[in-house]
Amino acid sequence: MTTIKIGTRNSPLALWQANEVAVKLQAIGHTTEIVPIVSSGDKNLTQPLYAMGITGVFTKDLDIALLNKDIDIAVHSLKDVPTQLPTGTQISAVLERDFPQDVLVRKSDAKDKELKDLKIATSSLRRRAFWSHTFHNTEFADIRGNVQTRLKKLEDGVADATLFSLAGLKRMELDIDFEEVDFLLQAPSQGVVCIANRTEDIDLTGVLKQINHDATQKCIHIEREFLRTLEGGCTAPIGAHAEFIGDNIRFQGRLCSLDGKDCINVDETIDWNPEQNFGAEIAQQVLERGGKDMMLLIKSQIKL
Predict the structure, then answer these.
(1) In whole angstroms, how far apart are CA 200 and each of 28, 40, 72, 90, 232?
(2) Nearest CA to 13 among 123, 124, 149, 142?
């Protein structure tokens, strides 16, 4: 095979992920080239991308490059990838998950504040709702950007603390203090790097399967099916985490109202069976326990 062109966003974290994929492909005898994708603004979009109008804010540029054949594969943080993929693309491999959890990072002069008194900077509906479920009167501030940008905004006074995926901090080897916050169930597929390619590229799909981490793939399939069945195209406060414990899988899932007052939690241990769609089955249980009405309310509140 000729050189495999690896598409990636241009952020430090995204480039780290692309390099990890490159190393694994090189280890099985393939040459690679990393192609940073900055913007789709001046691209000539010649391919129909998204069925049903669904788009991914953080993945669209790479999807365009992939379908226009500017790159051979696209490397994503899987938690950013919509459950409805663009027609003609597929996820062919995931790397082993390392750090799935969320962590709290405080600004230097808020080290002694109690959790309940912190002003939290996050734009994530999930993090806001889950935090509010535990600490009802929390004040929030919006914050966006990469890790370094958010850390600077924190010290500039936007809030007392912010929340990160631990995977991002570890991958960037940032020497900063953080606290684990176990009550914040992580986003589905958090901490997982995935590789997408065109469905027509059968030989390349076979290559990617060689670097796929099977246990991680089984777990994230459950998490994403849970998310897909609940969300119906709507961004909502949904958490999910599946992990192997021996030969079994423990699955934790959560759906919360936007204000965090109402939450539906599930915690089940299952025997893996490839013929059974556990994620969808558990999500149906959540919908029957009041989740359907909750999702209708959430959709009306965020005006989708």
Answers:
(1) 22, 23, 11, 10, 27
(2) 149
Residues 42, 63, 72, 80: which is the catalytic one?
80
Residue pLDDT tens, the chain, 304 long: 589 999 999 888 999 999 999 999 999 999 999 999 975 433 433 433 333 333 466 688 899 999 999 999 999 999 989 898 999 999 999 999 999 999 999 998 999 999 999 999 998 999 999 999 999 999 999 988 778 888 899 999 999 999 999 999 999 998 899 999 999 999 999 999 999 999 999 999 999 999 999 999 999 999 999 999 998 666 789 999 999 999 999 999 999 999 999 999 999 999 989 899 999 999 999 999 999 999 999 988 886 4
Contact 264, 286 (CB under 8 A): yes
Q: Are 8 and 36 in contact (CB under 8 A)?
A: yes
**How distant is the alpha carbon of residue 11 from its chain centre?**
16
SS3 (DSSP) at 219: helix
The model's pTM? 0.90
Q: Could you tell me the CA-to-CA distances from 243 to 7, 10, 251, 278 in Å, in that order?
A: 29, 31, 7, 13
Annotated catalytic residue 80 = yes
SS3 state of residue 284: helix
Task: Using DSSP, state whether 242 is helix, strand or coil.
Answer: strand
Retrieve residue 219's tokens.
């777990």
